[in-house]
Amino acid sequence: MGGSEIKAGDCMPEMPEVENIVRGIRPFIETKKITDIEIIKSDIVKYPSVEQYVQRIKNSRINAVKRRGKYIILELDNGIAAVIHLRMTGKLLYTRQNQPIDKYACVIFTLEDKNKLVYADVRRLGTLDAVTNRELPRLKGLYSLGAEPLTADFSVDYLQKVLQKSKSRIKSFLLNQKNVAGLGNIYVDEALFLSRINPLRTAGSLSIAEIKALHEAVNQVIGAGIKDGGTTFRDYRNGLGGKGTHQDHLYVYSRKGEPCRVCGAPIEKTVVSGRGTYYCPCCQRPNSEEEK
User: Fold this and answer.
1) Is it true that domain 14-143 has CATH number 3.20.190.10?
2) Which CATH number does the domain 156-291 belong to among 2.130.10.120, 1.10.8.50, 1.10.760.10, 3.40.640.10?
3) 0.70 surpassed by pTM
4) 275 is catalytic
């Protein structure tokens, strides 16, 4: 793999990685009471204050562990939602009482069985919030999410409706969480390759046949990423500390100069909206002046 091509911001956890974290920790923490919280790095807690955050969560029980887009949501029995966004390098790890704590631990939740849920983040870019239902609009990124892949809301009709209004590049459009929730750099590049769409195309220029192909490709790459346990290049670990394997099955992402798995042409790299973008110049040919 062309790992040297990857920058830290290019491969933050996306929907498949976050889904695997949730699936991994759910059996161990759901129904458990949080008996203590240790805030090691207070800048991770964004709302409310650190003191109020602890008050809202301590001695509450975790009713459900859910995911929306790239957000992890712990629904508590007191009506509070503990919302965790990993950003680029955050990790949420279930840690048994006899296991060492991650050296980059920022917040440690102790459960009633003495095991722990640890939020660790080497760059401290992630965020932790504790909100009521009425306060949910404060979390604009979560509140404004679009439909997400593998759900009934993410239909061809939905995708066509939001695409036809857009004048942005298709790569930028798909990265915008208000349009499609959960997608990031890796899976956007992969979906565009599978649907044979050049990343520089204008979103509103896609034909209905291309929209259908893109819809199918998005669901396909997200499903494959979940099945493979996510994509691990550097920081990503699932909730039990394991790595994903999807990096071994990528078509274009991080493969600059390597032969296309379909046609054999060298994979190329460009930049779209400040993000490294990988594509096959033959399989994803531009088809109008706007992409040249």
Assistant:
1) yes
2) 1.10.8.50
3) yes
4) yes
